[in-house]
Write a structure and sequence with these properties.
The C terminus is likely disordered. The protein is globular. The longest helix is centred in the middle third of the chain and has 18 residues. Helices cover about 30% and strands about 35% of the residues. Strands 6-5-18-15-8-9 form a six-stranded antiparallel sheet, with helices on one face. A six-stranded antiparallel sheet has the order 14-13-10-7-16-17, with helices on both faces. A four-stranded parallel sheet has the order 2-1-3-4, sandwiched between helices. It has nine helices and 18 strands. By secondary structure, the chain is of the alpha+beta class. The two termini are about 30 Å apart. The protein folds into two domains: about 110 residues, Probable inorganic polyphosphate/atp-NAD kinase, domain 1 (Rossmann fold), CATH 3.40.50; about 160 residues, Tumour Suppressor Smad4.
């Protein structure tokens, strides 16, 4: 295969290592597996141009090294292109990498991707903005903004400031009055957070909910209706411990589309795979079945593959 590799040097773990050395190592690993490779380093500002240049080469796959936001941007650019997306996990959460079975260790991930196969997954859409894992409104965009604000600071400055503002948000944030429409008329909800997942997430002991099959054509909507931000923290702790997604103050529903309204708010901040965007209301959520080709460990395509949509 001909591969284009793009590394976002501003991604979490790449900031803490020698990005040029990582680029050279992955180039060698892919070449030893028999692939032709062009690899480059970029930053957040240059990512769009790097993706356009790579797409113009019409490679078999574009391998992206970065966090969930970087992967989301690449996935949105490759939807419907026929070019497969490869994921190198250099972020904090690495949600899609976990879902696809890509190892978190860089050397193991390179070995897996060098011998990977192609399958297709669904892509979520909210008002024309794509997401590969989840889209959140409410307290999540606020916490994401705080995290990004202090991310580039030295740890001894950024960590205390982030923790301080997190506590302030968790104490001060209050439930939103929303109206949601699943196609049966509007329903009133009061939520501290609303999370829309690209296919259902499954809880398990000591890991955050993950999606087993990201190509089943369904949206999972999670309402967190606790009276304060600490309820959102508690819901995530229960999920980490492997408890059901449906418990006190939390309800999960599966559907194919959703509209979200909020009175007196023309725009809402939305966190799509951790990336913040301000969108007009109502928020219209839909799904594009199997719209994105992805590289997965050899042998796992049978686990997550499904017949293409008619």
């Amino acid at each position: 295969m001909h591969l284009c590799v793009i590394l976002n040097a501003q991604s979490g773990t790449l900031q803490q290592t020698n990005a040029s050395r990582v680029r050279d190592e992955l180039t060698e690993a892919f070449q030893q597996a028999g692939h032709s490779v062009r690899a480059e380093l970029t930053d957040g500002a240059g990512l769009s141009q790097a993706l356009r240049t790579a797409c113009a080469e019409r490679p078999d796959a574009i391998v992206i090294g970065g966090g969930d936001g970087t992967i989301r941007s690449a996935g949105a650019a490759l939807v419907g292109s026929g070019i497969a997306l490869g994921v190198l996990p250099f972020g904090t959460m690495n949600l899609l990498a976990h879902d696809l079975g890509i190892p978190m260790d860089v050397a193991d991930a390179l070995r897996v991707l060098a011998n990977a196969e192609v399958t297709h997954i669904d892509v979520g859409d909210v008002n024309g903005e794509m997401f590969l894992c989840k889209s959140c409104i409410g307290i999540v965009p606020v916490l994401s903004e705080v995290r990004e604000r202090y991310r580039s600071r030295p740890w001894y400055v950024g960590v205390p400031l982030t923790a301080w503002y997190f506590v302030r948000v968790l104490f001060g944030f209050r439930r939103m009055g929303l109206q949601v429409d699943r196609g049966y008329g509007r329903e009133k909800r009061r939520c501290i957070a609303l999370e829309v997942n690209n296919n259902s997430a499954v809880s398990g002991p000591f890991h955050f909910p993950r999606r087993r099959l990201p190509n089943q054509g369904k949206l999972e909507v999670v309402y967190v209706e606790s009276p304060s931000g600490w309820g959102y923290v508690w819901a995530n702790i229960l999920g980490l411990l492997g408890f059901s997604r449906n418990h006190v103050h939390v309800e999960a529903q599966v559907m194919t589309s959703l509209q979200v309204f909020r009175r007196r708010r023309r725009r809402l901040w939305v966190a799509n795979d951790g990336e913040l965007v301000r969108l007009k209301t109502p928020l219209s959520y839909t799904l594009h079945p199997q719209a994105l080709a992805v590289l997965v460990p050899r042998g796992t395509a049978r686990r997550i593959a499904a017949p293409p949509p008619p």
